[in-house]
Amino acid sequence: MATDIMGFVKFSDGTMGSFLKEGATAETVTSLPTGGNGINQVSGVEIGQAYNGKVAVACIVNCQTDSATTACFAYGYFLDPQGKIMTVVQGGGSDTPGLPALPRPVVMTPGVTLNATFDALADAVALASLGVCCTDGSADAFFIKAVGDTATELVNKDGNGIGKALVGKVIKYAYATYSATNGLNDDGGGFGGLYIQDAGGQLKMVFPISKGKGAVASPFTPGYGTTIMQNDVAYVNAGV
Predict the structure, then answer these.
(1) Among 136, 134, 127, which Cα is nearest to 162's?
(2) Per-domain boundaries in the chain
């Protein structure tokens, strides 16, 4: 069954844009160009080019599998022309309502893209993801396919863990997603949230998970002033 990823973006001038990737691949990040049936909008153009000069202030990403409700939002973000994450975006399944404000406004220029990925709801290990916003306005997304009963490090799109990618930065808030039908710690052999430990193994922060298809978009958890140090590690430990 095919799965589509849809994005809806509100701009500061009051206009909106609709974005669509048809036939997306699970656990694979894809850009969402303009798209959508029945609206007056040219399709197939990346957001930065289509809305050059506008300022995005709110966004929701929805994931829809044909004739099913198994698609779950994993994570998403705006990417600048140099390949740097500008801010993360929130999302959910096909029936997730709302239009959350972005953590910070994003100015559209040619080369800016809206990107997202999904995972399928199943009683099995799943893609774990952590979308992080920092107090200085920077952002990043960390992810990994979980391994049963094994602590596994989350890394970003460049292969860097949270300690290397965000050293010295303070987490403002983050969302965590995991699409297993019965939760992250179904058999009691894992840990019930995505978590950060320091070099000595001390637990610094836990982010409870969303399945990415609930009644609200994957919610942000406050960072409570958690400062990232060079040897900190973000983990998932799935009990299945």
Answers:
(1) 134
(2) 3-237
